[in-house]
Design a protein that fits this description.
This protein has 212 residues and is of the alpha/beta class. It is built from 5 helices and 12 strands. A hairpin with a 5-residue loop joins strand 10 and strand 11. Pfam families: LUD_dom.
Length: 212
């Protein structure tokens, strides 16, 4: 049976470690943990970081979620959107466009025909403005759904926003396929000119629900 590229690399790493005569290194894990902030301060910090990354941010309550999402989608001219199978249908009751429920049977290239996608999220970090998706909940969708369409509207529960990175990572399961989002996809060319939308959505709109 032919070994995969991953198996080959790991085998070479194990061989190199076996040949090494150096002492085993203990990596220090004395991170700052257990930090917290009041809701208002945590929200303000998170929004500040998101805006710094050029993400668009709206806040809403549980009662106004559908109205705010409809406004965001209308502002971007999104007439056909993709949604994960577990997204709360009540969130889109104010949207009058076409909604396509994604599945593993849908070829990834066909997702380019969508104007955008609406998903939930797993956890977020206020200090870095990072949103984590781990696919654990059915409202997050598969990775392709959040990478191919040019617009990603991500719903974040304020209760899921942690102050720092250690606090956020502690909420995740390492074995899950984790995606970290810090603003819209962007890179710089050889002249250091920022180019957005190269490796994922050109536009990230974050809707933060301040209560459930």
């Amino acid at each position: 049976m032919t070994a995969t590229a991953r198996e080959t690399v790991l085998h070479r790493v194990r061989d190199a470690l076996a040949l090494s005569d150096g002492p085993e290194v203990t990596v220090p894990r004395g991170y700052r943990t257990g930090r917290s902030l009041p809701d208002e301060e945590r929200l303000a910090l998170f929004v500040d970081r998101l805006v710094d990354y050029r993400a668009q941010v709206r806040t809403c309550t549980a009662a106004t979620t559908a109205a705010v999402l409809a406004e965001v989608l209308q502002a971007h001219g999104a007439r056909k959107i993709g949604v994960p199978p577990g997204l709360d249908p009540a969130w889109l009751t104010g949207y009058d466009g076409e909604t396509v429920t994604d599945s593993a049977d849908v070829p990834a290239p066909s997702l380019d025909g969508l104007d955008g996608v609406v998903t939930g999220s797993a956890v977020s970090c206020a200090e870095t403005g990072t949103i984590f998706l781990d696919g654990a909940a059915a409202d997050q969708g598969r990775r392709a759904l959040t990478l191919v369409p040019d617009l990603h509207v991500c719903v974040v529960e304020l209760s899921s926003v942690r102050t720092g990175v250690p606090e956020a990572v502690a909420q995740l399961t390492p074995e899950h396929p984790i995606t970290l989002i810090s603003g819209p996809s962007a890179t710089s060319d050889i002249e250091l000119e920022r180019v957005e939308g190269v490796h994922g959505p050109r536009t990230l709109a974050v809707v933060i629900r301040t209560d459930r």
